[in-house]
């Protein structure tokens, strides 16, 4: 189930974000989380199954109709189970009239979800 990020999930979100190749540095990771917390154009979602948060998807609204997915991450022990694809599908369903694309880092995975 897709849920919106809240400050109480900060450590879990940072852990999931740290699996992204460009988010290995702690200072960079902290800056990214701050953007998601403070900038209304940055939207962060978490994927929850039962009581565990096992995935993360983050995007940036470049205008009111277009979002670019910048982060897609799944806990390594839950990969290859369709969770990433389910997150992409859920965000597209959440914003059916919007154009959602991916950045360079996420585009290969994003296109596999179609």
Automatic annotation (TrEMBL):
<dbReference type="InterPro" id="IPR016181">
    <property type="entry name" value="Acyl_CoA_acyltransferase"/>
</dbReference>
<feature type="domain" description="N-acetyltransferase">
    <location>
        <begin position="3"/>
        <end position="114"/>
    </location>
</feature>
<keyword id="KW-0808">Transferase</keyword>
<protein>
    <submittedName>
        <fullName>GNAT family N-acetyltransferase</fullName>
    </submittedName>
</protein>
<keyword id="KW-0012">Acyltransferase</keyword>
<dbReference type="Pfam" id="PF00583">
    <property type="entry name" value="Acetyltransf_1"/>
</dbReference>
<dbReference type="InterPro" id="IPR000182">
    <property type="entry name" value="GNAT_dom"/>
</dbReference>
């Amino acid at each position: 189930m897709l849920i919106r990020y809240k400050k109480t999930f900060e450590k879990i979100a940072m852990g999931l974000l740290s699996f992204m190749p460009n988010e290995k540095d702690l200072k960079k990771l902290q800056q990214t989380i701050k953007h998601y917390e403070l900038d209304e154009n940055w939207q962060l979602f978490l994927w929850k199954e039962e009581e565990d948060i096992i995935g993360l998807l983050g995007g940036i609204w470049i205008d009111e109709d277009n979002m670019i997915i910048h982060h897609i991450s799944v806990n390594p022990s839950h990969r290859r189970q369709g969770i990433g694809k389910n997150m992409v599908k859920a965000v597209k369903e959440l914003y059916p009239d919007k154009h959602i694309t991916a950045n360079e880092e996420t585009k290969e995975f994003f296109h596999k979800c179609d």
